[in-house]
Amino acid sequence: MKLLVCGGAGFIGSTFVRERVRVHGDELTVLDKLTYAGRRENLQEVESDIKFVHGAIEDPEAVAGAVGDAEAIVNFAAETHVDRSISGPEEFIMTNMQGTHVLLEAARERGLGYLQVSTDEVYGSIEEGSFTEESPLQPSSPYSATKTGADLLVSSYFHTYGLETVICRGSNNYGPHQYPEKLIPLMVLNALAGDHLPVYGDGKNVRNWLFVEDFARGIGHALLHGAPGEVYNCGGPDECDNLTVVRRIVELCGRDESLIEFVTDRPGHDRRYSLSSAKLGALGWRAQVRFDEGLARTVEWYRDNAWWWDPIRSGAYRDYYERHYGRALKA
Ligand SMILES: NC(=O)c1ccc[n+]([C@@H]2O[C@H](COP(=O)([O-])OP(=O)(O)OC[C@H]3O[C@@H](n4cnc5c(N)ncnc54)[C@H](O)[C@@H]3O)[C@@H](O)[C@H]2O)c1
């Protein structure tokens, strides 16, 4: 297939790009603004097989220049960190909502397929059981609210203009190439460095962990086999609370639990996310990587790839970290 992949230099987008190029031989153009989270390094293994365009999805000219003869647009591009959305929601509104609108217009003008990559966070928190695609949308952070707004806009383009849209909502992803502000890479890199491990609140927030390669396969599956206008949840095979995740990381890194430090909780921190993936399962997708295996692979990847994370940990991320946690990262 010929695809325009927006946000393909980020964590999940680059995993999707590698999978589509290597396994399926797709012809891909990546459009990415290269924010702090987007890195050409993430694409270096497939650099010669893809076309890369540096630009923003909210810029109609950049999108028109990148779309070429693509058959469909797959949109990963987003501001994605909940903590950053709390301290500065503006960019989330611009990228996640305005940017999605520009991409939908580009797809509508050219009659292209459109897949929106979305998140379980649009459903809010659930004490027991799992969300289905019919569950009400109850986002609680500016991040999840802007993702919800984008999803509703995507659905409106199906209902109003007949655009062939599919939405794929993933649960919490983890794996190689994830920017270290997110829980698992943050804890892995701090544990490897013997630095403190800041856990929000009581650490009992539960997440439905999905290995990034499984999500990339799920998105490809929804793109090829999903019905227009439909939403597909793509959840991980295992649930685990944050403190248990951090304890396993401590063990995998050969450290001591005394590194764990409980810090003031994130405002409005959702307690538990859980997705039912039965609908995508009925189309033939299932997660292949259990949490224990995926976490061990992730720790090993960060241990072996200091070239990837060292420039991040020694750059602007240090200032962000100090502002956010009120203490410096170990050098
Ligand atoms: N990480 C998760 O656990 C998770 C779970 C479910 C869904 N998602 C969704 O998957 C998508 C990708 O998430 P991720 O974790 O890979 O994010 P990420 O932050 O690692 O990457 C985002 C990418 O989008 C690019 N980008 C940001 N603003 C842009 C703009 N205005 N124009 C063009 N490119 C822009 C960045 O440069 C980066 O390459 C997002 O839509 C996110 O909401 C993430």
Q: How would you describe this protein?
A:
The protein has 331 residues and is of the alpha/beta class. The chain is built from twelve helices and twelve strands. The protein has helices at 11-24, 60-67, 82-87, 90-110, 142-161, 183-193, 212-225, 242-252, 278-282, 291-304, 306-313, 316-325; strands at residues 2-6, 27-32, 51-54, 72-75, 113-119, 165-170, 173-174, 197-200, 206-211, 230-234, 238-241, 260-263. The strands form three sheets. It has a seven-stranded parallel beta sheet, sandwiched between helices. A three-stranded mixed beta sheet has the order 7-9-11. The protein has a two-stranded parallel sheet with strand order 8-12. The radius of gyration is 19 Å and the shape is globular. The mean pLDDT is 96. The site of nicotinamide-adenine-dinucleotide has 30 residues, from helix 1, helix 4 and strand 5.
Instruction: Give every kind of bound small molecule, once each.
Output: nicotinamide-adenine-dinucleotide
Q: Could you state the order of secondary-structure elements as H and E? A: EHEEHEHHEHEEHEEHEEHEHHHH
Q: What's the end-to-end separation, in Å? A: 45 Å
Main structural class:
alpha/beta
How much helicity do the residues have? 40-55%
Arrangement of strands in the largest sheet? 3-2-1-4-5-6-10
Shape: globular
Q: What Rg, in angstroms, do the CA atoms define?
A: 19 Å
Q: What is the arithmetic mean of pLDDT?
A: 96
Percent range for β-strand residues = 15-25%
Number of strands: 12
Name the poorly predicted regions.
none
Q: What is the tally of helical segments?
A: 12
Main beta sheet strand tally, sense and closure: 7 strands, parallel
